[in-house]
Amino acid sequence: MLKLGVIGTGGITKQFIEATQENGSWKLTSVFSRSLEKAEQFGHEFSKNVRGYRDLHQFFSEGDFDVVYIASPNSLHFEQSRQAILAGKHVIVEKPACSNPSEMKVLQRLLRRYNNVYYFEAARHFHEPNFLKIKETIKQMDVIQGATLTYMKYSSKYDDFLTGNEPNVFSLNFSGGALQDLGVYLIYDAVSWFGIPNSVSYKATKLRNGIDGKGVALLNYQDFTVTLNVGKTANSYLPSEVYGLKETLVMDNAADLTDIQLINGSEKQNLTQKSAVNPMTAEVAAFTSILQKPLSLDNKQKMEDWLAVSVQVNRVIYDLRLSEKIVFRADKEFR
């Protein structure tokens, strides 16, 4: 049984815990929140034996858990992951794993020292059957002429921003913005399906504080360009597409993959794979299979392969931000 500690008490944490319960190989034991009362209340929704913490050092030193799931504001991911690794805890950190490549390099160095610790970025769709089916299909296409990937979803926090406040997801201080929050899904798609781009650029619609509310990114490859449409201030209902020669691979959404069609003229082939109701089920299953056999060299290699993708995605996001001169507080701290 894998003992789980969590940082954060939002809806995404609840969804992750529910996926671990569905899996059946996990037990929630510890919850960290800035409010002890909130931590305890949240934990007791799942079990009266869960212990709450408001001191992070105490959480890592006294908490009875093997794996920590981190779902705090983006800018806190790095330091909390660093403390977890130093405490010998396996890490599952919500995307984006880090604010910039400098933070990522620190964690990579730590992981080489603490080579018994596993570290995963929780880009949930990366492990889903439909994501893997698209990757397999693209490999089989003779010609790739590019792609257009879209993920635009009106944020529940944007109304608050419009009243004059600055929620974490729309703050440079907390490493927010459309590209960092939703764009990471699209960049995972591009890097996993097409490889590392030769060059990138980003044109953003900036909000009053300089954060990107929405934008269009171009990822340039040797023979084609991938266009990314991302936003947190509007909704888009456009499908996403990968262009072959005569065939086009069409998906309903580049992040929430629930329908895949390969279209060639009047011919349409349904490639959709069955997905779980909880979108975190697949990633929890993937992490479980590795963490239950931590001494397996194959599992260690699999983690290293996934980490390599995380590092590449982190670099692409950073380069896109720099092309639009979007600078986080976390970037300045490493100068």
UniProtKB/TrEMBL annotation:
Which Pfam families does the record match to this protein? Answer: GFO_IDH_MocA
Organism classification, top ranks? Bacteria, Bacillati, Bacillota, Bacilli, Lactobacillales
The superkingdom of the source organism is Bacteria
This protein is called Oxidoreductase
Q: SUPFAM superfamilies this protein is in?
A: Glyceraldehyde-3-phosphate dehydrogenase-like, C-terminal domain, NAD(P)-binding Rossmann-fold domains
Report the residue ranges that make up the Gfo/Idh/MocA-like oxidoreductase N-terminal domain in this protein: 3-119
User: What GO terms are given for molecular function?
Assistant: nucleotide binding
Gene3D superfamilies from the UniProt entry: Dihydrodipicolinate Reductase, domain 2, NAD(P)-binding Rossmann-like Domain
Q: Supply the PANTHER family for this chain.
A: PTHR43054, SCYLLO-INOSITOL 2-DEHYDROGENASE (NADP(+)) IOLU
